[in-house]
Prior knowledge:
Elements: E1 32-33, E2 37-46, E3 49-61, E4 64-72, H1 81-102, H2 106-115, E5 118-120
Antiparallel strand pairs: 1-2, 2-3, 3-4, 4-5
Helix pairs in contact: 1-2
Amino acid sequence: MADKVRRNDPCPCGSGKKYKECCMHSKQAQPRLSPRFRFEPGSYGGAGSFMPSIACLEQTAPNKWDYYFVLVDPGRICKRKKLAVSQAEEDLEAAFLQKQQSGSDYAVGEHLRDRGYVRVTNFKMVAE
């Protein structure tokens, strides 16, 4: 799998639609890709206590993605979910910029660790 999704490829969000018919025009919905994983910014927590989070999903079959791990920055509590997601987006963008500059996949993890992200175990996903 390439680092870039082409317009006629299956959408990496897992909807089963072509990318051009699904998330191609949605800036927020475009996940970062690696050969086997994708990363999605989000929030963790609730009721006025949201933390920036980044989910790593592993492709286990065509158009099937399972949660591999979730990172959370417990040092930044946001009153609004949207702010936590925005911070996670910025952090993920910066992490992939570090990867691009260094050429190393490890740069992503190192950058997020340095920002304060930690791995969450036994996390629970809540549908919107």
